[in-house]
Design brief:
Length: 198
């Protein structure tokens, strides 16, 4: 009947339907575990994971607008394990490798760009746009010697202790600093030595 009030609220009705489904399965399959579905919705900033059954803060769940409480039913830890298990299957690996091979063939430039962006993000925490902005700022030349790259691209120089990105250097300058353990005192001493014995 349109416009008529329901005698049961939406949540209770949904729970009744779910319990009815469980009872039907239990009737057809007696070995099915006889336990009612636990309510895992978010309440008071906490939510129970439907997989591991642990209760976490809602910040440990990804947002999902299709769910009633607005969060994915599984915590991020369980999702990570599930994804790892899924992507380690041989058939999934084979399918992904085939897709990657086709992508490399059809759009080699696009593939290279995305691969480089991923590597820069992973290793240095910068994007390809950040790299290109630094390159433009340095006129495409090494910050120390002012020469073009001797290996095709300039290396991202960074502090190995803090991970902070400094400037773009050619291969020779970047490795030379590395051989002096990024120590300014050693580099000054080397400069003084060269000046004295020039």
């Amino acid at each position: 009947m349109s416009g008529a009030r329901r005698s049961v609220c939406y949540d209770c009705r949904a729970l009744r339907i779910e319990l009815a489904k469980i009872r039907k399965v239990q009737k057809d399959y007696p070995e099915y575990p006889r336990q009612a579905r636990q309510d895992t919705r978010a309440r008071d900033g906490k939510k129970k994971c439907s997989k591991c059954r642990e209760t976490y803060e809602v910040s440990e769940f990804l947002k999902d607008e299709s769910k009633r409480d607005g969060y994915h039913p599984n915590c991020v830890h369980c999702q990570k394990v599930s994804r790892k298990e899924y992507f380690s299957r041989p058939e999934v690996k084979a399918r992904n490798n085939e897709r990657l091979r086709r992508w490399k063939q059809n759009d080699p430039e696009g593939y290279k760009r995305i691969a480089k962006n991923s590597r820069l993000k992973k290793e240095y925490g910068i994007t390809l746009d950040d790299y290109e902005a630094m390159l433009t700022e340095q006129d495409g030349k090494c910050f120390i010697c002012g020469k073009d790259s001797d290996w095709g691209t300039l290396a991202v120089d960074h502090c190995h202790k803090t991970g902070k990105v400094r400037k773009l250097l050619c291969f020779s300058c970047n490795t030379s600093i590395g051989k002096f353990n990024d120590d300014p005192a050693l580099l000054r001493k080397a400069a003084e030595y060269l000046e004295a014995h020039y």
